[in-house]
Amino acid sequence: MVLARRMEPLIEGSSAIRRLFEEGKELAERVGAENVYDFSLGNPSVPAPEAVKETAVRTLETQDPLYVHGYMLNSGFEDVRTAVADDLNGRFGSNLRMQDIIMTCGAATGINVILHLFLDPGDEVIAFAPFFGEYRNYVIAAGGTLKVVPADTETFQLNIDVLDELITERTKLVIVNNPNNPTGVIYSGQTLDRLQEVLEKAQTRIGHPIYVISDEPYRELVYDNNTVPFMPAHIRNCLIVYSFSKSLSLPGERIGYIAISPEIEYYREVQGGLTTTNRILSVNAPSLMQLVIKDCLRERPQLEVYDANRKLLYGKLTELGFECVRPQGAFYLFVKSPLKDCTAFVEEGKKQHILMVNAESFGCPGYVRLAYCVSGEMIKRSFPAFERLAEACKNYEQA
Ligand code: PLP
Asked: What is the model's pTM?
C-alpha cells in the first residue's frame, strides 16, 4: 500500500459522508429539491453581515495590494491580533496580549496545529462524547489516539468522573467543545471547575501537564440569554480555538484564531511551537479575511433566525414524542432514536426524505443530529414528513 496506514480508515470514513451527500443529491433529482429535508450539514443559512462585504471592499479599494495580499508573520497581522486580544479582554476581563493570539485558517486548522505540536505517535487525546466527529480524523492524522469519555445521557454535561479513569501517562490533551456540537448544551462553570480539579490531580500523578483545547466556534450562538463560561477563568492550561465560520457565516473563508492563556505552563515553548506549526501546516491565515474580521469583531450572528428555527423544530419533534435535548446554543438538535436500531431510524427518515446524521460517528450511538441552520420554510415543510416518520416508527416497533 502506498498510502500511510493511519490514513486508510479516515479515507473510508470520508467516503461514507460523501455517500450521504450523494444520496441527498440523487434524492433531490428524483423528488425535487423542495421535497428533500436536509438537516445534515452545519453550513450557516444566514448570510454574512453587510459589514463583512463593506470592509472587504473598502480594504481592497483603499489599501496597498502588496500589503493586503502579501506574506506576513506566520501568526498573522499584529494589529489584527491586538484587536482580537482587546476584544476578548473587553468582553471577558482577561489579560490577553497580541502575542497570545495566533490567526488560523478556521477552527479545524487551529485544532490541527495544536495536535501536531503536542502529539508523538501513540500519545492520547481525550474527547467527551458526543463530539464533533472530525476530531477523530484530526487526532489520527496527527499520529495520536483518541480516547472517548462516554456521554452522560442524563445531562449531556462533561462526564468528569469517567475522564479520570481514562487519563494515562500518554495523555497530552483534552478537547472540550462549548457550546457543544451536536447537543447544543453549554457546559457550566461548575462543570469546568470540576474538570480543572481532576486535571490538576492527574497531572501530579502522571508528571506532566495536560492541555485543554477549548473549541468555541459557537460561542456567540446562544439562546435565552445564556452565556458561555470563559474557559481560562476555569482551566489553567487552556488553549482557546475560535472560528468566524459560524458566528459571521464565513465557513469557506477559513478564518479563526488560537488564544493562548498567558497562565499556561511552558508558555514560551507552546507559543513558539504553535507559531512554527501554524507555518508548517498553513503558512498563515488568509490575509484579506484577517483585515476584515479586525473591523467586524463586534458583529453578531442573526440569533433570532436560528432561535426561531430551534423553537420550531424542537417544538414539533417533542410534540410528536421524539426525545430531544433542548439546545441552549449552536444550531443542532440532538434526538434519541425511537428505534433500537439507529441506522434503521436514519433509513426510515430517508424514506420520508429527511436527512439526519447518525451520532455514532460523534461517539454517541442511539442518537441522531439535525442541523437547524436551514431555512425556516424548509423546517415547516418538513413537518408532515416528521409526522409520517413518527408513525412509521410506531409501526416499525410492532412489526
Ligand atoms: N469544531 C466544531 C465543534 C465544529 O462544529 C466545526 C465545524 O462544523 C469546526 C470545529 C470546524 O470549523 P471551521 O470551519 O472553523 O474549521
From this structure: 0.96
